[in-house]
Design a protein that fits this description.
By secondary structure, this protein is of the alpha+beta class. The protein is built from 5 helices and 7 strands, in the order ααααβββββαββ.
């Protein structure tokens, strides 16, 4: 038997209905749904022979109406909040795309300027340019792996990814090449340089 009718036999209709909590502004949608189900169950279990049956039905109907109104308000609130979240999600997506494009533009500019300076240093066979407070210099990059022919690389140097495609494990290849172990389809690059600032 529902909570509302548990005390119906020993209480007035008013106190019986009060066993179901009243709607509150901060109540969750789940709590509202549970209270609505409790009220509907209570309505079904009202004993027609009870002298207060009609009054109980009227009070339960009133509570059901109030609960339905609270549910509609809560649903609107949740829907509006979801719309607000989607709006911000779309805005962030646009900002990410805009900033990514802006980042790529600056990266290209930096790479172009660095390339010009590296070319200048190499042309004049210099390793370092001094400024008033800073310097630009060539510094040798750590050894890195260059893929010459991916099809020739043995599977033991590849890592399976979630898409079932094989991903080349450059870290393992680098260790082998540095240990003078040949890995088909690759070579160890040791002549790359980068521009550093001081």
């Amino acid at each position: 038997m529902s909570a509302l009718l548990t005390v119906a036999a020993s209480a007035t209709p008013e106190t019986a209905v009060q066993t179901v909590a009243k709607p509150t502004p901060n109540e969750s949608l789940m709590a509202i749904e549970e209270r609505l189900q409790m009220l509907l169950d209570s309505e079904e279990f009202i004993d027609p022979a009870d002298p207060n049956a009609d009054k109980l039905r009227a009070m339960v109907a009133e509570e059901i109406a109030a609960t339905l109104e609270a549910e509609l308000t809560k649903v609107d609130g949740v829907a509006n909040y979801l719309t607000w979240l989607e709006t911000h999600e779309e805005f962030c997506g646009r900002e990410i795309a805009r900033l990514a494009a802006r980042k790529a533009k600056f990266e290209k500019r930096r790479e172009r300027v660095e390339g010009m300076v590296i070319g200048l240093l190499r042309e004049h066979k210099e390793r370092r340019l001094e400024g008033h407070t800073t310097f630009l210099a060539l510094r040798k990059n750590p050894p890195s792996v260059e893929i010459v022919n991916e099809d020739e690389i043995p599977n033991e140097y590849k890592t399976a990814v979630i898409t079932s495609e094989m991903q080349i494990n450059k870290t393992m290849i680098k260790r082998c090449l540095q240990a003078q172990i040949d890995v088909p389809g690759t070579r160890l690059v040791t002549d790359k340089e980068r521009l550093v600032r001081g």
